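User: Can you fold this complex?
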Amino acid sequence: MKTVNVMIVGVGGQGSLLASKLLGKVLVDAGYDVKVSEVHGMSQRGGSVVTYVRFGDKVASPIIDLGESDFILSFEKLEAARYAEYLSPNGRIIVNTQEIDPMPVIVGKAVYPSHVLNELESKDVALDAVDALSLAEQAGTAKAVNVVLLGRLARLLPAIPRESWLDAIRSSVKPKFVDVNLRAFDLGYSLD
Amino acid sequence: MKRLMIGNEAVARGLYEGGVRVVSSYPGTPSTEITEFLSEYRDIYTEWAPNEKVATEVAFGASLSGVRSATCMKHVGLNVAADPLFTLSYTGVNGGMVICVADDPAMHSSQNEQDSRHYAKAAKVPMLEPSDSAECLAFAKEAFNLSESFDTPVLFRLCTRIAHSQSVVETGERVAPDPIPYERKGEKFIMMPGNAKKRHPFVEERLKKLTAYAESTPLNRIEEGGKHVGIITSGTCYQYVREALGNEVSVLKLGMVWPLPVDLIRRFAESVERVVVIEELDGFIEEHCRNIGVDVDGKSIFSPVGEYSQSVVAAAFGIEPKPHVVIEDPIPARPPMMCAGCPHRGLFYTLKKNGVTTLGDIGCYTLGAQPPLAAIDSTLCMGASVSGLHGFKRGLGETGRKLKTACVIGDSTFVHSGMTGLADIAYNGSASLVVVLDNSITGMTGHQENPTTGYNIHGDPAGKIDLEALCRAMGIRRIRVVDPYDLAATDAAVKEELDADEPSVIISRRPCVLLKRVKTNPPLSVDPELCRSCKKCLSLGCPAISFRDGHAVVNDTLCTGCGVCSGLCPFHAIGGKEAAQ
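Assistant: Here's the predicted assembly.
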């Protein structure tokens, strides 16, 4: 099979590490060769963060280049636009509609481009806009935005059974957070 | 069992399976997790050392005692450890010794992108370089055998994309050889001139033997493919070559990047029409090829700057880039910044307010250079803020007395190499103001304990350096401790110490807000009736405060209730809930 590329992008602190951990685990359990690449350190301090996940029969490079990503899972609206150039022409962006102001906006040096998703749609980018924050709060914690979005992605990866995801959540998060994350996953998974 | 591991975890696993018994390291991105994962194996000894030189010497001592040892650091850490490294090459080892060094091409979290392969060549010791996590494990294990067979410390090179990329790994059993009994061997281990003169020829002879090993070791391999182009590569670049060019090319994949083989490279070059060397950073392998008379292309095509990728490799061979959507509208940058509730913020605000020229250091607080605080004038290397300030003041001389100057350095960095600078200030008596940003942790690398925190690598109680007593013992008489959440007290202390005619130290003490043991306060809020839109609170550069619909707004998922902004607001518009005490 052709290697499938998924990028997880967002703001440092939004939980992309757990999302890539869960995704990597279900893919390895499903028997794929998998590579996951992320950068730790200074960029995590509220900066723009990106994780590459690649899977297939045999994966060489750990990173994804411009025009190569089949899916972009964006935890924040502006970040979807920042990385849209990485999307393959047949790819799809799943984006949390939450807005988090970057420092240039906070200090008034730049304006938050709230219309940015319209621009993507006008360029025929396939887009799933999800109010993941509300769904996460509905599940029980605003911190589960990552798992809501993962649930939405799971629907688009039909080769992986739903139960594998639930197993990965059960074995990867602390016992007291399992239920809230399972609820968050299902809310994302059930989206049309 | 097959599972995903980042390269660093796989290196840790390989060192463990290879029988390591003593590990001493100083944290540094992207190397830190190697030692963190090793610390989870409680049947071996692991520690955080004050700096990389100490760590390397601890590993040397353990090797001398007869056990297998390791130390792990980032590329610039090897500069600090260079002193023991070069003479370790002469002494060789007793138990096997591995020095892991992680380069950071593209400087994701570093101040330069130096290529540590030059150290292997300069110190005349072997260097291995894996290209995925499975090789991280296998090579780390093999490194100990190499070390003991050739009587040499072994350098183990990673880069960010190997250290922090996960790929599938199968683990094995730990095989720990018995310690080699210690015997005094003065000619080998006492490096005074008479002995060292005898060891240098040994080093040269060892290099020849290692070169012969490089010709035949399975660490280096030829992968046959198309014969028009042959690629010589190693590390992460090997993966980009495979991704971009597949079997169109033949590949000489080097797992040992020093010493480099001679006959193997010549043979490979003869089997293809054209040879291209693909390596990030310097043309290290390329230069070797030229030295042995093999004509290659390398840095004439590929940049010595930054990271590569499959598209960088593809473009060099005329492959069209992939089509993609183009976003014309400018996207505001999202640089990293100090966290909401960061204790450094109040201190930087105070320095900026007082117009202080501030020499900075290495750590989270380097982010004090970012607007709107923009409170730092220089960042060079670990410890350079302190010694640099002394030189800066001497350089300014009498004419510069009116310039307000200070330096800032974190607790861990201060112990790493700020103390020696302070000794210079105390000894040679410059009226320098040293601010120690004591947040009780090594922050930027992800919360490692250090000699000032009172805990060891496992989080168990340990020795604790008393910073005030230490400064006093050096002869500093003016020592102040302030809470940077208290802007008024911080401002008063900074003003007074700037006026002092002798060396002084301010310890700005407040634990990192991200520490689990730190209890934060309920989030604050802005009373829109009281807010006059003066935007003074925005000058703190706190990610929890933004400006919407004509007044300041506090994001209550980010706010930690530190109260610095409410102390600053002239209209008492921020609060409502209790601020930090």
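DSSP finds eight helices and six strands in chain A. The mean pLDDT of chain A is 93.
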